[in-house]
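Chain particulars:
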Amino acid sequence: MSKVLVIILGVIVVGIAGWLVVSKNNAPREASRQAQSERAPDFNLQDYNGKTVRFADFAGKPLVINSWAAWCPFCRKELVDFAVAQKEFGDDVTIIAIDRAESRETAKKYTDELGVTNLIFLLDPSDSFYQSIDGFSMPETIFVDREGNIAERKRGPMEIKEIREKIQKLLSS
């Protein structure tokens, strides 16, 4: 029994030591990445009507770009909150919702059920946008300043209060 305990403790110690080494080696890279302005990824996607929309179409405007899917339970309330925020902030900010690799029918049915119509909805059949922002949670949102740089990134869902705060911060920068 004590041999097993020693082996388990040894594995735990080695695992923690390995994690510390990896964390320490990644810290300088992460700090330098944050110090640089990260450009928002370019996109060239279609809206529900088949019209092509490009990132360049929004040059000089602050953007909120949300990556969502109908299968994501957190996206339901968040899309409604984004619609409320778009109404509140008007032309000061543009909110774009990019669906992750679902059909037009699935995405449109979902947003129609929510009654959300005042956002720019884009379809991304190859999921390229989500991949370009190194997405790993759902939903994922980036806040893009007037120069086209990612000012802030939010992984996971937000409540309306947080959405408002992040948009106000984006507009004041």
